[in-house]
Each structure stands twice: as structure tokens, then as C-alpha cells.
């Protein structure tokens, strides 16, 4: 723990500037305004309680996004999801198990597909575009299902600053595979230094626009899309398992 705290101290720009800190506050506010225009609102306004704000802010600060300062400790998908969902976990006592299962089942299936396509749970692996076509299809379908599941999660979650930071973190997880795909396609056309500055905002903007579009789709149609994507992911997982 002391080593982790020391590393965070050395990487203070991550906490205060980017991808946490000032960037997270501004980006989460802009995302909240955009989602409100797309009729994807939080269940309640909420208040900025420190215990609810800190975990998603830490998750954002540790995301593997260039050109943030290097950090020796990686963040995996499970830990990131726990930190981002901490504000909602504070209100789980009033929710039924059926509601939680309906909200998280597509997200967990998408997380399983992401981990299988990339060969692990570390978020840095989402930035590496896989070679086999079946893994590429699985990665794309899983990222799409993760994105499609977000409107329901965000509509039933907390509001306020904690809710906005949570929404931004969940969105950026879906943006990481897109960022990896862009980096792979433009590796020979774009210098690495320039790509580190240019591609992350492009991936974030594309993911945000996609989430806004998904939020405008009626709930029943979105549920059908989630079902189709879930079947595709299960089929691709079966193909990968059968090829081993």
C-alpha cells in the first residue's frame, strides 16, 4: 500500500490534471450535459459526498490513457468497475436483486468478452488490437454491448458529481478498444507522439456521440440489440473455446 501511495504521489498530474482531476471534472460535466440532451438522466440529482466521489475519480486517474504520466501499477477491469460503481453501491439496499441483475448482466457479459478477446483483465490490454479475426469480432461486439448497457445503468444510478464521474469512467472503458483500433490502423501513418495526443480525444468523442445515439433508442429496441449482441458474444466465445 505504501508503494502504491508513493507511486500516486509521484504521478500527481494523473490525480490533479489528466486523466483525473481537472480533465475528469470538465469532461464529466460536458458528458452530463450531452446525455441530458439525449434524454439519459440520472435517477436523482444527488450530492457530491466525498465517499462517493473519490472512488470513481481514482479510477479515472488510473486509466491507461496517453499522454498521461506513466504509472507502474495497472488497473484491471474488475477493480475499475468496483471503483466506478461505488456511488451506486451505496444505494443498493433499496434495490431488488432482479433490478440489479437486469442492469448488470449485459455489462458483465461484455466484460467477459473484453477479457477473453484481449487475453486478460488489465485495461492496458484493451489498447492492443488482437490479431485473430474472431478475437477482433469479439472485442468489437463486447465493446458495443458495454456501450449499449450504459443508458439503463446511468438512468438508475446516482446523480451529481459522483454520477457524472461514474458515467465518464464507464464510457472511457468502452472507448479503450476503439482507441486501440485507431492506433493499430494509423500506426504507420501517424507518429507515436502525435498519436498519443490526438487519438484519445477522438476515441472519447466518438464513444460519447455513440452513447448519446444509443440513449435515444427506445428501451425495447435497445433490449433487442443487447440480446443480439449477447448471442453473438456467446457464439464467439464458443468458437474460441472450441479452437483451443
Overall pLDDT: 89
The percent range for strand residues is under 5%
Question: What's the story with the biggest beta sheet?
Answer: none
Q: Which word captures the global form?
A: globular
The total count of helices amounts to 10
| Total domain units | 1
What structural class do helix, strand and pairing data support? mainly alpha
How widely separated are the two ends?
Answer: 38 Å
Unreliable spans: none
Whole-angstrom Rg: 17 Å
Number of strands: 0
Q: Could you state the order of secondary-structure elements as H and E?
A: HHHHHHHHHH
Describe the structure.
The chain has 244 residues and is mainly α. It has one domain (2-242). The chain is 72% helix and 0% strand. It has 10 helices and no strands. The chain has helices at 2-10, 12-16, 21-37, 50-61, 77-89, 97-118, 133-155, 160-185, 192-216, 219-242. The relative contact order is 0.15.
Question: What's the arrangement of secondary structure elements?
Answer:
Elements: H1 2-10, H2 12-16, H3 21-37, H4 50-61, H5 77-89, H6 97-118, H7 133-155, H8 160-185, H9 192-216, H10 219-242
Q: In a nutshell, what does this entry contain?
A:
With 244 residues, the chain is mainly alpha-helical.
Question: Key terms for this structure?
Answer:
244 residues, mainly alpha
